[in-house]
Inverse folding.
């Protein structure tokens, strides 16, 4: 139906002249009373004229519509339409309304515009020019809105926005809004502005009653204020009232403390500043070159506290000196039942590993029940069932503390005693035990050993032709050993008194081969980064050596 020109009041400047030519006068009414006052106002698709200051019907100009001016009011099944002037089509119960158009429906719904075209047969209202649609939950503004009243759906296609009762402002090029369910679908250049964050995407579902956004396309959510963070996702839900979201499909949270959190499923609470992740989770700490991963993870960006469980792993990138003195990066792979990172009182990073700890780096491997690594003193503390391997060396103790200088071990201490062993082959091992041991390293090689209390030594010195034909066994209270490059012994000092024996190999009894508590744990040693997940490499199989009496112990 093509709309007639807007009735401005000047469209009939010669009505009297027209009437004279046709021999009749146009019908006109002063002050229109309600049309059919006793009719059923709820009759479907029927529009009633309720009021107008003037009604004109000019059969010569148009036989199918009436012109109404001044305080015009229509009704249709509980809906009311107001305007300054209108064309009304009685046969189709359709109308064209102009000037201060206002439309109201039950439940507090109200729409205003400059022009309204209403088609009763389709129950569609076309609102044009400065359109505003309001209900109890939102205000929609646009320049052009099509409103399907039967389906309770409003559509705009040329840009518009919705502001809900929480102050969320949603803008897009296109939108479909259900006035009954308060569900909206936004498409093309979609933004959601909240006092605390801004969301941008290509398509978004949103409910103005629950204030929940349903994410269905690639979406970025940037925080506002001092705590800057960023969410990247393509699936999930974001509750703008509670300021939290549940996200899927490997979504990413870039936290305000320079970490990334990724998982199959993520829950993020911006108000409290923490995130939880489930399924193949990754927490990447770029600043400290540390990656935590596992099947469940947690991170608090305000306290800087993280932990992962269920196949938990830490990958810590360290810069070390290679054998040529050049710097290169190595990765320390650590597995435990639970891994945590946090900041101490001086804002220095601490990493802890609890239960069934296994770690691998190309130059060093180890097992223990639990461990802690701190930036404060650059020490890795290993507790209970602890064992460390480096090349053909093994250190066993109930507690082992390793100090790192530029990520390279420069000394290790066994404060509660332990044993250092070196595998020589053919079932021979150099062995050293004592109540307290200190080892000093240079370029990844052992350079000095200091042992105090109940010192016991078994070693097999090489002859000039690199053969071994005797065993040296000794005991004292203190021992110092200095070594040259390639682990060659330079000096040995034992004091205050020394007892010992030198025995040719062919005279050795099996019981004299090993110190008390000696065992070589090579079968438990991780051989690759993947081995840290091997549950057969069980730290509980490691026994702290007994410092003191020498006896025969199986190497199996």
């Amino acid at each position: 139906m093509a709309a007639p020109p807007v009735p401005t009041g000047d469209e009939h400047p010669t009505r009297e002249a027209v009437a004279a030519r046709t021999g009749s006068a146009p019908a006109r009414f002063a002050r229109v009373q309600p049309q059919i006052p006793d009719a059923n106002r709820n009759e479907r698709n029927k529009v009633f004229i309720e009021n107008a200051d003037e009604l004109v019907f000019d059969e010569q100009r148009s036989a199918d519509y009436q012109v109404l001016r001044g305080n015009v009011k229509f009704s249709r099944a509980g809906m009311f339409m107001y305007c300054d002037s209108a064309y009304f089509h009685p046969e189709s119960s359709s109308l064209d309304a102009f000037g201060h158009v206002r439309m109201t429906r039950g439940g507090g719904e109200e729409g205003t515009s400059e022009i309204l075209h209403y088609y009763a047969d389709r129950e569609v209202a076309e609102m044009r020019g400065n359109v505003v649609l309001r209900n109890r939950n939102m205000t929609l503004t646009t320049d052009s809105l099509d409103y399907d009243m039967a389906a309770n759906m409003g559509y705009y296609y040329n840009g518009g926005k919705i502001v809900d009762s929480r102050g969320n402002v949603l803008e897009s090029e296109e939108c479909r809004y259900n006035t009954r369910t308060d569900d909206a679908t936004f498409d093309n250049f979609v933004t959601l502005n909240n006092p605390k964050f801004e969301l941008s995407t290509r398509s978004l579902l949103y409910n103005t009653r629950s204030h929940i956004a349903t994410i269905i396309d690639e979406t970025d959510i940037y925080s506002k204020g001092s705590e800057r963070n960023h969410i990247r996702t393509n699936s999930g839900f974001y509750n703008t009232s509670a300021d939290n979201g549940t996200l899927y499909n490997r979504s990413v949270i870039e936290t305000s403390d320079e970490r990334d959190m990724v998982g199959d499923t993520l829950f993020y609470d911006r108000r409290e500043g923490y995130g939880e992740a489930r399924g193949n989770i990754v927490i990447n700490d770029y600043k400290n070159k540390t990656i935590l991963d596992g099947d469940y993870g947690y991170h608090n960006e305000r306290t800087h506290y993280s932990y992962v469980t269920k196949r938990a792993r830490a990958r810590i990138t360290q810069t070390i000196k290679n054998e040529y003195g050049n710097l290169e990066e190595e990765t320390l792979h650590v597995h435990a039942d639970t891994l945590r990172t946090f900041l101490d009182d001086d804002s220095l990073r601490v990493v802890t590993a609890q239960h069934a700890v296994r770690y691998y780096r190309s130059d060093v491997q180890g097992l223990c029940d639990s461990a802690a690594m701190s930036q404060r003193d650059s020490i890795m503390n290993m507790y209970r069932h602890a064992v460390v391997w480096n090349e053909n060396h093994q250190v066993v103790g109930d507690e082992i503390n390793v100090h790192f200088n530029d990520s390279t071990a420069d000394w290790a201490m066994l404060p509660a005693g332990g044993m250092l062993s070196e595998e020589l082959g053919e079932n021979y091992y150099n062995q050293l035990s004592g109540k307290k041991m200190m080892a000093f390293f240079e370029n990844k090689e052992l350079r000095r050993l200091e042992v105090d209390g109940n010192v016991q030594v078994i070693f097999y010195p090489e002859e000039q032709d690199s053969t071994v034909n005797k065993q040296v066994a000794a005991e004292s209270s203190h021992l110092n050993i200095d070594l040259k490059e390639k682990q060659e012994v330079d000096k040995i000092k034992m004091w205050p008194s020394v007892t010992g024996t030198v025995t040719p190999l062919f005279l050795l009894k099996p019981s004299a081969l090993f110190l008390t508590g000696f065992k070589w744990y090579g079968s438990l040693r991780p051989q690759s980064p993947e081995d840290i997940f091997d549950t057969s490499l069980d730290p509980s199989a490691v026994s702290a050596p007994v410092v003191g009496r020498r006896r025969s112990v199986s190497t199996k």
Summary: The CA atoms of residues 2 and 96 lie 10 Å apart. The helical segments are 15-22. The mean pLDDT is 88. The radius of gyration is 42 Å.
